[in-house]
Automatic annotation (TrEMBL):
Catalyzes the attachment of glutamate to tRNA(Glu) in a two-step reaction: glutamate is first activated by ATP to form Glu-AMP and then transferred to the acceptor end of tRNA(Glu). It comes from Hyphomicrobium nitrativorans NL23. Residues 9-321 form the Glutamyl/glutaminyl-tRNA synthetase class Ib catalytic domain. Its EC number is 6.1.1.17. One of its GO terms (cellular component) is cytoplasm. It is an enzyme of class 6 (ligase). InterPro entries: aa-tRNA-synth_I_cd-bd (IPR045462), aa-tRNA-synth_I_codon-bd_sub2 (IPR020751), aa-tRNA-synth_I_CS (IPR001412), aa_tRNA-synth_I_cd-bd_sf (IPR008925), Glu-tRNA-ligase_bac/mito (IPR004527), Glu/Gln-tRNA-synth (IPR000924), Glu/Gln-tRNA-synth_Ib_cat-dom (IPR020058), GluQ/Sye (IPR049940). GO terms for biological process: glutamyl-tRNA aminoacylation. It catalyses: tRNA(Glu) + L-glutamate + ATP = L-glutamyl-tRNA(Glu) + AMP + diphosphate. Keywords: Aminoacyl-tRNA synthetase, ATP-binding, Cytoplasm, Ligase, Nucleotide-binding, Protein biosynthesis. The gene is gltX. Residues 386-457 form the Aminoacyl-tRNA synthetase class I anticodon-binding domain. This is Glutamate--tRNA ligase. It is found in: Cytoplasm.
Length: 460
């Protein structure tokens, strides 16, 4: 994909729930596009749903973005712009692009059923356009309030109000050439009967007013993009460039949802996952790049190319994300985690971190190994003769990285045991675990007193 200079992009969640990995993937793709090409990343809260939008969810969205390092240069809220939407709606009404309709939802549903029964597509019949001023006045006298539909540019003098095949096309940044037939669609409702605007409308107004140049979102918006291009043109504005990525689906193949709490960004944070692991996963899943951990968002931006993004759904794998998190920690330096280790009560400086980092899946696992090394544990005695012998052969302190080799050589010479028969019983006694960090690195932190007690089967 060619370089895009100074793009303005937006992430536009509705604060009606918490963000999940699918939402964040869209945010990441937009943020990386802006970061790579010197652009602006905007957070726009689409909060016109007054019943379900809450400030608690809005703040949760900000928290998730900040945790991931997805800083935004501008924030806007649609609830602050209702006057602007009303102003633009009046413009569309005056130009004949927005017209009043009075059917109830039950009446519309009945119309759709009748059309389907006749084998016809359930397209709105534009009854609202046939109403006279007298008709509208009578309906409003009955207590009805209009909702307002946008008249799609899909008819002509020869068809009257009947829609004709009308193709809207664009070169999608991800999917290539795309077309939407406006003749197969109903005129969309842009204003509800209570006066509140819908997303299809408000999003276009915002994109115009905030000079959004590129829109990257899920493939479920492809048809919506065709409709919105028509609205941009009705308002005399040039549509942004569009890119529609394949959706992220759950392990069982179903769509992700805000109700999928186990896949929320907050749940990843609570589980101890690293922000850069989540960010790396969200940026690379469903692309031609290998899913590998990256330590900085700049590294991901350098790799970023919408041409690498697949148009097919990508399957989220929680185990793959956890493995990615472990890989990230395995190559993380002590300086990068020193303060957090201290907060967990982990000592031992860089030497201890380097001893255990290859055996942690989340950072808090280092605390478990610190406790194994420095606190009392119940040893597991698999071969008492072996461990009793080892207890008598412990070298004098100070201990270092050669102590384990010295000890095992002495025990092997005394018992004739080698390989797993030698090493496994010693590991069980010294750590209480079947596997873990190399004992040559861990043993100096255990120390002679605890090692002797554990080898003798005592708590130590």
């Amino acid at each position: 994909m060619a370089r895009i200079m100074n793009p303005t992009v937006r992430f536009a969640p509705s604060p009606t729930g918490t963000l999940h990995i699918g939402n964040i993937r869209t945010a990441v793709l937009n943020a990386l596009l802006a970061r790579k090409d010197g652009g602006t990343f905007m957070l726009r809260l689409d909060d016109t749903d007054r019943e379900r939008s809450t400030e608690e969810f809005a703040e949760a969205i900000r928290t998730d973005l900040r945790w991931l390092g997805l800083d935004w240069e501008r924030e806007e809220r649609q609830s602050d712009r209702l006057g602007r939407y009303a102003e633009v709606a009046e413009t569309l009404k005056a130009s004949g692009h927005l017209y009043a309709c009075y059917e109830t939802e039950a009446e519309l549903d009945l119309k759709r059923k009748r059309l389907r029964a006749r084998g016809l597509p359930p397209i709105y019949d534009r009854t609202g356009l046939r109403l006279s001023d007298e008709d509208r006045a009578k309906l409003e006298a009955e207590g009805r309030r209009p909702h307002w539909r946008f008249r799609l540019p899909n008819s002509g003098p020869e068809s009257g109000l009947s829609p004709l095949p009308t193709v809207v096309s664009w070169n999608d940044m991800i999917r290539g050439d795309q077309t939407v037939d406006l003749g197969s669609l109903s005129d969309p409702v842009l204003i509800r009967e209570d006066g509140s605007p819908l997303y299809t409308f408000t999003s276009v107004v915002d994109d115009i007013d905030f000079s959004v140049t590129h829109i990257v979102r899920g493939e479920d918006h492809v048809t919506n993009s065709g409709v919105q291009i028509a609205i941009f043109e009705a308002l005399g504005a040039e549509p942004p460039a569009f890119g529609h990525h394949g959706l992220l689906i759950s392990a069982d193949g179903t769509a992700l949802s805000k109700r999928t709490g186990s896949l929320s960004i907050g749940s990843f944070r609570d589980a101890g996952l690293e922000p850069m692991a989540v960010l790396s996963y969200a940026a690379l899943i469903g692309t031609s790049d290998a899913i590998e951990p990256h330590g900085a968002i700049e590294d991901l931006a350098a790799l970023f190319d919408l041409g690498k993004v697949s148009t097919t759904p990508a399957r989220f794998d929680a185990a793959e994300l956890r493995n990615l998190n472990a890989k990230l920690l395995h190559k993380t330096t002590f300086d990068a985690v020193a303060d957090r280790l201290a907060a967990f009560g982990v000592g031992g400086s860089a030497e201890f971190w380097e001893a255990v980092r290859g055996n942690v899946a989340v950072l808090e696992d280092a605390r478990d190994w610190w406790q194994v090394a420095t606190s009392d544990i119940d040893p597991v005695i698999e071969n008492k003769d072996l461990t009793d012998t080892a207890a008598t052969l412990l070298p004098s302190e100070p201990w270092d990285g050669d102590t384990w080799k010295t000890l095992t050589a002495a025990v092997s010479s005394a018992t004739g045991l080698k390989g797993r028969a030698l090493f496994h019983p010693l590991r069980l006694a010294l750590t209480g675990r079947d596997a873990g960090p190399e004992l040559k690195a861990l043993l100096p932190f255990i120390g002679r007193t605890r090692a002797e007690a554990r080898l003798k089967g005592l708590i130590g």
